[in-house]
Design a protein that fits this description.
- The chain has 257 residues and is α/β, with parallel strands linked by helices.
- The chain has a single domain, classed as Aldolase class I (TIM Barrel, Alpha-Beta Barrel), CATH 3.20.20.
- 42% of the residues lie in helices and 14% in strands.
- The protein is globular, with a radius of gyration of 17 Å.
- It binds phosphoenolpyruvate (PEP).
- Phosphoenolpyruvate binds next to strand 8.
- Phosphoenolpyruvate (PEP) binds next to strand 8.
Length: 257
């Protein structure tokens, strides 16, 4: 779709300290430059740990790197007595463009609820951060409810507090495909992405549905990215493990349909 620039997003999870992050981003920028990567055709973003963000911000600004970045989570609160939490205001101040919200590891390991995800989406939008809203079913959900029911319900819930046309990204990440080496098929990803686009249309209208990027995530690698990108409703990828390997990640960015 000409209205949607593909987005390749690398979620580093709890990997790379701020010194390693600087070295990594420099190498990544070189690798993409070498390949004459067309940054107007594909947007690339990295999601380092919070403690790396200031370093990444400084490096991206100093070298004018065509690289977006963001955080892996944020607090639903603005400020105050929330020990260990990070405000969207702080992320905006560090020039983060994006923030990942509701990753399955947050939902399962930190018991994040749909209500919290919805509150975090509102918090992100308040600070003009583009939320990357993660949804996806477990293997048990898939067996019990079929492919789209849980992701569709999670997206509806996540958008509960969004009332105006908002700049958002949706990431469909089947939990069974994350870090398992067993990616969904492009057809499976397309089926759910199409259902998620219907939700966007019903909740935020045709215009938002047309321009919102829906990413696939779950064991994406350089060898399987092209299949996903050929699908009409898949507009990019959220990449975990393979985003920590320069060759793999730049291979994904350079996908050929
Ligand atoms: C993720 O955690 O967002 C993810 C997609 O992980 P991986 O690429 O390692 O499956």
């Amino acid at each position: 779709n000409p209205r949607r620039t593909p987005l390749i997003a690398g979620n580093w999870k709890m990997n790379l300290d701020h010194l390693q992050a600087i070295a990594f981003v420099q190498k990544l920028a070189w690798s993409l430059k070498d390949a004459r990567h067309d940054f107007t055709a594909v947007e690339v973003a990295v999601f380092p740990p919070f403690t790396d963000l200031r370093s990444v911000q400084t490096l991206v600004a100093a070298d004018k790197l065509p690289l977006a970045f963001g955080a892996q989570d944020l607090s639903e609160h603005e400020s105050g007595a929330y020990t260990g939490e990070i405000s969207g205001a702080f992320l905006a101040q560090l020039e983060c463009q994006y923030v990942i919200i509701g990753h399955s590891e947050r939902r399962t390991l930190h018991a994040e609820t749909d209500e919290q995800v919805a509150a975090k989406v509102v918090a992100a939008l308040t600070h003009n951060l583009v939320p990357i809203i993660c949804v996806g079913e477990t293997a048990a959900d898939l067996e019990l409810h079929g492919p789209s029911a849980v992701p569709v319900a999670q997206l509806r819930a996540a958008l509960a507090g969004v009332t105006r046309a908002a700049d958002i990204v949706v990431a469909y990440e089947p939990v069974w495909a994350i870090g398992s080496g067993q990616a969904a098929t492009p057809e499976q990803a397309e089926q759910v992405a199409a259902a998620l686009r219907v939700v966007l249309n019903e909740t935020l209208g045709q215009d938002v549905a047309d321009k919102t990027r829906i990413l696939y995530g779950g064991s994406v690698k350089a060898v399987n990215i092209a299949g996903f990108m050929r699908e009409p409703n898949v507009d990019g990828a959220l990449v975990g493990g393979a985003s920590l390997d320069i060759n793999e990640f730049s291979g994904i960015v350079r996908f050929q349909k």
